[in-house]
Specification:
By secondary structure, the chain is an all-alpha fold. It has helices at residues 17-24, 34-65, 79-82, 106-114, 122-127, 134-146, 154-157, 161-174, 179-187, 189-224, 231-245, 272-287, 329-338, 343-350, 359-386, 395-410, and strands at 252-256, 259-264. It has a two-stranded antiparallel ribbon with strand order 1-2. A hairpin with a 2-residue loop joins strand 1 (252-256) and strand 2. It starts with 16 loop residues before the first helix and ends in an 18-residue tail after the last helix.
């Protein structure tokens, strides 16, 4: 006798079962409310403008500054890189995600010229720290470099003989005619090589953010036009974007004049999804590291995890508070986003909390909400790639999806996770 299994499966008994059921219905970890949608789209726009600088400067450092022993002007991006067309915006793009211009965003250029203190030479803006905080971008890059081995073969390639030979050619070409630096390279080859590996992560992150900036700009435009009306729609737009650019090459080139040295060639076969996007989410959203000055590093007292995979200091777990100390990455990003908030989000903050007095904290918590939505998109994309459609009628397939979602939610059972907080509008 053949038993016919019914399509339905029992309700989840997981502590976060309500969120799991929402994911199974095609939703996000973030509840679908007009206020949540307004907040996350507004913060995506505020994030995209400085991100348009981050990706350009990261590639400028990886491709042009390279091993400059005194890189004092590495944040003084060249006009060539400000004019560099984004691969996913403008008429020249093969896959146009954003309908806007391909060169640096007008709001970014205006801020670079005037900042908060008015029009003055670039050096004065820099010394006054009236600029985009590239230190945040570098902190994200170092998190990816440190938390290696998270899928893909990018980090393993950096240890390969092919990579070492490519880096050697690039180093010798860069220091050609400089016997002092060539002599130091001969004495300390590993030190130079390790720096080149770090620069390869500059390129990796720059190519990742080159995609995300036009994605966020387009989402903002769709919302303004009334064409993006729910949180699941925003999440699905991200899912579609992930699949559309999944195969984008990740590479590292050095340019000396007009000559290109391929340290990581495109032919190596590294792709955006597996070598940049997933490692970024894992390293930056989940793991990162305890922030200096705010968390203890006393490993002997078990105040730092024994294993890297147990690190839980990313934005999904963060207690958002702008302490203002030098080098605290969330504070730097929050300050960058503050300059580019859309008017509707500024008005929203002005009516809550202490108004402008705690605007940084409010936008930091909004950013946290928005990154839970991005993480939801990644989770749904992984489910779609590895398992079964949400409307699959086979109970075994639906149960496989269920187990996948429950495993993902296990990571949010830590007391530091903010997933329960973002379910409520009064979390601010």
């Amino acid at each position: 006798m053949t038993t016919t299994l019914k399509p339905g499966i029992p309700s989840s008994t997981h502590p976060l079962s309500d969120i799991i059921h929402r994911l199974e219905a095609g939703g996000s970890m973030l509840p679908d409310t007009p206020e949540n949608l307004m907040q996350i789209i507004g913060i995506y726009k505020a994030y995209a403008v400085p991100m348009d600088f981050y990706w350009r400067d990261l590639l400028y450092i990886a491709e042009r500054v390279f091993l400059n022993p005194i890189p004092a002007f590495k944040y003084f991006i060249s006009q060539e890189y400000l004019d560099r067309p984004n691969s996913y915006a403008g008429d020249q793009s093969q896959l146009r995600i954003w309908r806007g211009e391909a060169t640096a965003h007008p709001e970014l250029l205006e801020f670079m010229e005037r900042g908060e203190t008015g029009k003055m030479p670039k050096l004065w803006h820099h010394l006054w720290h009236d600029r985009v905080n590239m230190e945040f971008a570098e902190a994200c890059m170092r998190a990816m470099l440190w938390h290696q081995g998270m899928g893909g073969g990018f980090y393993a390639y950096l240890e390969s003989e092919e990579y070492i030979a490519n880096a050697d050619r690039a180093i010798k070409a860069y220091f050609k005619g400089n016997p002092l630096m060539l002599g130091l390279y001969k004495l300390f080859p590993t030190m130079f090589l390790e720096k080149v590996r770090e620069l390869s992560y500059y390129a990796n992150l720059g190519l990742f953010w080159e995609v995300m900036a036009p994605v966020f700009f387009e989402m903002s435009d769709l919302y303004d036009e009334g064409k993006m009306t729910t949180v699941p729609e925003a999440m699905q737009f991200l899912v579609n974007g992930i699949f559309a650019v999944a195969g984008r090459p990740i590479y590292h080139h050095l340019y000396i004049g007009d000559e290109c040295y391929e340290i990581i060639p495109k032919s190596a076969g590294f792709t955006w999804l597996y070598e940049a996007a997933l490692p970024y989410v894992e390293a930056v959203f989940y793991r990162t590291a305890p922030f200096r000055g705010t968390k203890s590093y006393n490993a002997q007292a078990n105040q730092v995890p024994d294993e890297q995979q147990d690190f839980h200091y990313g934005i999904l777990y963060a207690d958002v508070f702008p302490v203002g100390s030098a080098g605290i990455p969330p504070t730097l990003l929050m300050q960058d986003m503050l300059h580019f908030l859309p008017p509707y989000l500024k008005e929203f903050y002005a009516k809550r909390g202490r108004g402008e007095d705690d605007e940084l904290i409010q936008l930091g918590i909004t950013f946290q909400r928005s990154m839970y939505n991005v993480t939801s998109a990644v989770i749904q994309a992984l489910r779609a790639a590895l398992l079964y459609p949400l409307d699959d009628q086979n109970p075994r397939h639906r149960m496989a999806n269920r187990r996948f979602f429950e495993a993902q939610m296990d990571r949010f059972l830590r007391p530091e996770a903010r997933i329960k907080d973002i379910q409520h509008p009064d979390y601010r």
